[in-house]
Amino acid sequence: MPEAWGRVLQPIRIYLFTVPALLVIGAFFVYPILLSVNLSFTNFTGVGVANYIGWANYERFLSRSRYLNSVGVTIKFTFLVVVFQTLIGLVFAALLHRMPAIRNFCRAVLFTPAMMSFVIVGYVWQFIYAPYTGGLNAFLSAIGLESLARGWLGDPSTALFAIAATHVWMFVGYTTAIFLVGFANIPSDIEEAGRLDGASSWQRFRYLELPLLAPSFTVNIILSTVGTLKTFELPFIMTRGGPDRATNTLSLEIVNNLFGSYKFGFASALSIVMLLIVVAVAIVQNIYLKRREDNQ
Q: Which range marks the domain in which residue 114 is found?
C-alpha cells in the first residue's frame, strides 16, 4: 500500500514545485491586472471611494481624438524603432562576425548606452538636438550643411524621428548581441562549403546566413516591439509629449493621467487598452515569425 500511494502522489509532488512560481505570478502579474480591470470601470482618484461608472472611461478613450492620436504615435514610433534597430543591429552583427579580433570590444561599446539611465540619455540627446548650441546643428554647420539645421525636438515633423533615433542608439547593442548569438549558432561547415563553392561574402550572407538567422529575427523583433510599445521615458524627458502632441505616446498618456491628474480609473482603462494592444501585436508577430522560421 505505501508503494501504491507513493506512485499516486508522485505526480502531485512534482506539481507542488510550481507553487512558489505560481504564487509570484499571481501576486505580481495576475492580481495587478485584475485590479486594473476593476479600477478601469470606476472614477477612482487615489483617495476616497471608487464609484462604478461602467464603460465611461473606455467611451472617453474612443471619443477623444488625443487618445486615439496617442495610439497612432505609439505605433509609428514602434515601427521606426523596430525597423531601424533590427537593420542596424544586423549590419553591426554581420560586420563583427567577420572581425573576431575586435568583436568583444565593440560588443562592450555597443552595450554601454543600454546600461545608462534613461534620464541621462534623454538629457544628453536633448542637448545634442538643441536648436542653437546643440552638437548636431554645430556638426551640420561645420560641414557646410547649415541649411539642414533646425530645432529637432521643437519641430512636429522631426521630433518623433529624433526620439526614435535616440532609442535605437540606446538599445541597438541588445539587437546586435542577439544576432551575434545567431551567427555563432550557424554550423561552420555551411559557411566553409559556401567559401569552397566560390560564394562571395555578400552571397554567403544573403543565401546562407540570413535564412539561418530567422530565430534571431523572431527574438529581436518581438522583444523590441513589446519594449517600444510600452516606452514613455524618452518622450517624457525630451519633449513631454510635444510639440503639438507629436511625441505623445499612449504610455505617456497613462503616466500623465495617473500622476498628473490623479485619474486612476481612466489611467487603468488606458493601461488595459495598452495591454490588449501589446498582447495582440505579440501574438500576431509570433505566429507570423514562427511560420517564417518553419519555411526557411
A: 63-295
